[in-house]
User: Which sequence fits this backbone?
């Protein structure tokens, strides 16, 4: 019985992937002749995959080297985002007045695309790297802000009453009750923020021309090596998926707490 | 002078919280509640669900402010919540991210910050031992049964070494067997600590097992306390012992009579004079 479940768990996703490969092939054969077929993509990309750490100049590196560069940039932006977003979320959750004052600002800033932030970042910082981090942090921050604020607002009155009866100091109340009670929400925010940061990386690298998966993608588009666009797209997808899985494992650890 | 005194306390809540109503209608929950409790006395307040029992205990705890009247502890009016009035909440209110020891230690640390760490640890461990949970010290609340969680809550309340321990239907969420065991255990612990206790309950037998005085709360809205029924059977009592005693059945009848009579808001049972219907 268990074996059967295992095999469908394997067969169904394989069928899904096959169907997508089929559509991809059909597209490249019949409709978009410039689109490389899966086979051609593999043939032209294999040196990047089979030798993932080679380096032959800034913009010609193995795929995992590019991925690493992007991940480092995302990590910096992500940590910047949560370092600002978590306390901001706490303030919003704690103080209805603060919330009233800043909620409109946040609602206006939130839907702004990274493509709009990046030029502004370049104007402010004059350099591509800080501009990229600025963009990632600004776009990725909001899920953390909003989830943390919601978590603080939904701390059970029972836990707060324990703090009141014990007359805990503000610091103790924060450390022993409010932060632990909010952690599950915070980590949901962190997971969504990381996903957002990864989404933004491509735009940030494209516009700044920094070495990384997004920069590589844009360069290969300009050099008409379309198979490498597909290689980048697939790598971005796989790594994004892995990051999300990783974060949901972390998130689940805190859910039960 | 009474140790804990409630004088003419009344409390009402807005009828439709959130909706602005023209006549500002308020629903009275408690009115003119008077109660005086001696030091080391175990008082039970019995009432039906919805009669305002939890509101009364929240008032004494200071978690809710009265609209009228005042509450005095050792002659001084209470001002907000404080650790000299320890609370055992109805739903345990343990912090799920801390284990048993940490939950109790948090209380000790909060009320006696000046003690050395080893003394604080010893005090937390002492009260955990008192409720027979030494073996579960490192477990977190979700690994414990309801009865065990309530023991932790009792240990936390006692570890604060409060002047008054307030208990809000502490055993109401437990199955009958566990409840019986915990009631007898509480009777034993009370013998050891002789705390002043105010316990809210809807279980008359529980009240008779534990209390020196039983008060009934009339049915709300606008509930108030009836006169005391004294239980003179010496502590510690057990369920088995009580059920064989004629006096138990009399106290029970009187309390039930008051609950029923009080529900209809008429004069209480004739034997229940102010000062208490005693039983020997």
Assistant:
């Amino acid at each position: 019985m268990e074996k059967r479940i295992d095999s469908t768990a394997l067969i169904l996703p394989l069928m899904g992937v096959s169907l997508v490969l089929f559509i991809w092939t059909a597209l490249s054969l019949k409709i978009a002749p410039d689109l490389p077929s899966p086979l051609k993509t593999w043939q032209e990309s294999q040196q990047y995959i089979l030798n993932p750490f080679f380096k032959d100049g800034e913009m010609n590196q193995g795929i995992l080297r590019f991925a690493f560069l992007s991940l480092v940039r995302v990590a910096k932006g992500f940590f910047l985002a949560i370092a600002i977003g978590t306390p901001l979320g706490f303030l919003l959750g704690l103080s209805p007045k603060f919330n009233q004052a800043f909620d409109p600002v946040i609602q206006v800033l939130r839907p702004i695309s990274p493509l709009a932030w990046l030029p502004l970042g370049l104007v402010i910082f004059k350099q591509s790297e800080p501009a990229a981090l600025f963009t990632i942090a600004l776009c990725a921050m909001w899920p953390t802000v909003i989830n943390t604020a919601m978590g603080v607002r939904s701390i059970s009155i029972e836990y707060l009453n324990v703090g009141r009866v014990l007359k805990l100091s503000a610091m103790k109340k924060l450390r022993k009750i409010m932060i632990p009670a909010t952690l599950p929400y915070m980590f949901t925010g962190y997971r969504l923020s990381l996903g957002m940061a990864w989404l933004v990386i491509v735009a940030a690298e494209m516009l700044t021309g920094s070495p990384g998966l997004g920069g590589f993608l844009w360069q290969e588009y300009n050099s008409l090596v379309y198979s490498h666009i597909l290689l980048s797209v697939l790598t971005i997808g796989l790594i994004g998926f892995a990051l999300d899985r990783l974060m949901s494992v972390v998130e689940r650890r805190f859910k039960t707490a | 002078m009474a140790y804990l005194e409630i004088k003419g306390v009344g409390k009402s809540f807005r009828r439709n919280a959130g909706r602005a109503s023209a006549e500002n209608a308020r629903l009275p929950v408690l009115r003119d509640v008077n109660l005086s409790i001696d030091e080391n006395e175990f008082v039970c307040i019995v009432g039906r669900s919805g009669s305002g029992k939890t509101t009364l205990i929240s008032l004494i705890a200071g978690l809710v402010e009265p609209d009228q009247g005042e509450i005095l502890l050792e002659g001084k009016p209470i001002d907000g919540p404080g650790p000299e009035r320890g609370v055992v909440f109805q739903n345990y209110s343990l912090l799920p991210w801390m284990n048993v020891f940490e939950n109790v230690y948090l209380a000790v640390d909060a009320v006696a910050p000046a003690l050395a760490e080893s003394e604080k640890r010893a005090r937390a461990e002492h009260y955990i031992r008192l409720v027979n949970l030494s073996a579960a010290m490192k477990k977190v609340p979700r690994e414990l049964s309801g009865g065990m969680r309530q023991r932790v809550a009792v240990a936390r309340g006692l570890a604060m070494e409060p002047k008054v321990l307030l208990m809000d239907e502490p055993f109401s969420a437990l199955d009958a067997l566990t409840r019986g065991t915990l009631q007898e255990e509480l009777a034993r612990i009370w013998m050891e600590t002789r705390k002043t206790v105010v316990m809210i309950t809807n279980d008359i037998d529980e009240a008779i097992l534990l209390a020196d005085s039983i008060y009934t709360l009339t049915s709300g809205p606008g509930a108030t306390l009836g006169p005391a029924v004294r239980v003179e059977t010496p502590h510690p009592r057990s369920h088995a012992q009580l059920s064989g005693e004629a006096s138990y059945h009399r106290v029970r009848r009187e309390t039930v009579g008051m609950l029923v009579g009080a529900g209809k808001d008429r004069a209480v049972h004739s034997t229940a004079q102010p000062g208490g219907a005693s039983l020997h």
Q: What stands out?
A: The longest helix of chain A spans residues 170-208. Residues 27 and 33 of chain A are 8 Å apart (CA to CA). Chain A has ten helices and no strands. The interface with chain B takes residues 158-159, 161-162, 164-168, 172, 176-177, 180-181, 183, 256-257 of chain A (CB under 8 Å).
